[in-house]
Write a structure and sequence with these properties.
The chain folds into 2 domains: 67 residues, Hypothetical PUA domain-like, domain 1 (Ribosomal Protein L25, Chain P); 161 residues, Alpha/beta knot (3-Layer(aba) Sandwich). Strands 7, 8, 9, 10, 11, 12 and 13 form a 7-stranded parallel sheet that branches. Strands 1, 2, 3, 4, 5 and 6 form a 6-stranded mixed sheet that branches. The protein is an alpha/beta fold. Helix 2 packs parallel to helix 3 and helix 2 packs parallel to helix 5. The protein is elongated, with a radius of gyration of 20 Å. It has 5 helices and 13 strands.
Length: 242
Amino acid sequence: MRTIRSFIDLPLHPERELVLPEMVSNHVVRVLRLETDDIFHLFNGDGYDYPCRILSLEKRGARVLILEKIAVLNESPLRIHLYQSIARGEKMDWILQKSTELGVAEFTPIVSDRTEVKLEGERSDKKLAHWQGVVRSACEQSGRAIVPAVNPAVAIHSIDAEGINSAYYLQPDATNRISELTIPNDGKLVLAIGPEGGFTERDIRLLQTAGFKGLRIGPRVLRTETAGIAVTAALQSHYGDW
């Protein structure tokens, strides 16, 4: 039977009572239809699940008792940082959701030459908050108790390889293949995924200057919403916890 889990952005401690915030309470009571004495899990991204019992259903929010603290040991040994060119509409949500399920540790949306989505000011803040919510929901579903960071969007000229050798952008004619990579002991990998239409020559020059190398995952050109998910799955299969 699937464990019901809900993210909460609060400190959690065993044997303490807590009134759930309105949004969490509505999800637990109205969407999941849990009742008094039902047990579900809270998590806040610290690597633990906190089983809770519902004590009462009140107007201001359900009151729960935190029963215990359980370590969740399902993080991948690969620490993949995915630099994803911003995709339109639900495509970006799909990328974030599925990559979270596959174990990506960190996301940074990037604006490259062919990126069509423009984010500025308040719209950028709202989009970032939305994307963070998508990742938290994916953690609820997939059982992860450490929530991947979703960073503010950056221009492609400002990203770098973070001082490691394992930084790659996808390129069908590249010589580096997934099966031949040398993975660092700390598992850190940086991947850059282009937009629809791919990276331009200028984009690639900027990535190469920043320390990125081309990576081949097959002779076919993948869509932006396929590429990051495909390469993450292949990396997990070869070097991760699959």
